[in-house]
Structure formats: structure tokens, C-alpha cells
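Still learning. Show one?

>
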Amino acid sequence: MPKYVSFFTYTPEAWRAMTENPQDRSGAARALVENVGGRLESYYWMSGKFDGLLIADLPDDQAAAALAVVVKGAGAVKEYETHALTSTDHAPALLKKAQTAGKNYRSPGR
């Protein structure tokens, strides 16, 4: 199954609610990922531009998009972005495809 990473930033209202009623949100994230046929690998809070991230194995891009729709629609996050991950095992094949694709490509002005 393809692996995805999603970064999120909570709204001030969500932080207030979690501060007033502390809870582990990983269970909710796990249930959501499982509802689209995936498996949650990890869920972390962090400092910086984003408040946290989750890494999940998901069936496909549609499942990843469905998660985004649910999370964004719930109103507890103000930013949410997802990226497909490529393992180092798959990197040589990806680079080979890039080599083939680039043979006839010319950048603008060349």
C-alpha cells in the first residue's frame, strides 16, 4: 500500500478545546485512517509551521483525498496538506523514469 504523510495545524479553537479537555487524538486519527482502508503508522505533534503530522499506509490517492476532506470539513485544522512518500527502494525506478522522460524535454528558452 502507498505511504502518505499529512501535516496539520490546529485552529486556536481546537487548541482551546484540547487544553480544556486533554485527550490523545491518535485514536481518532487511527479510526479515520482505518475507515478509508488504511493503517496509521505514526502520529506526532511538533513545533514549527505545522502542529503535527501523521504517516499512514493508504489504498490510493482517493483515500488520501477523502481524509483531507473529512479533516478540513471538521473545522479543527486551519492547514492540512498530504504528500505521497517514495521509499529509497523505489527511488532507482523513479530516477530511471525521470531519465527516460527527460530525454526530449527542453527547459523554457532552450
About this structure: The chain is about 40% helix and 25% strand. The first helix runs from residue 12 to 20.
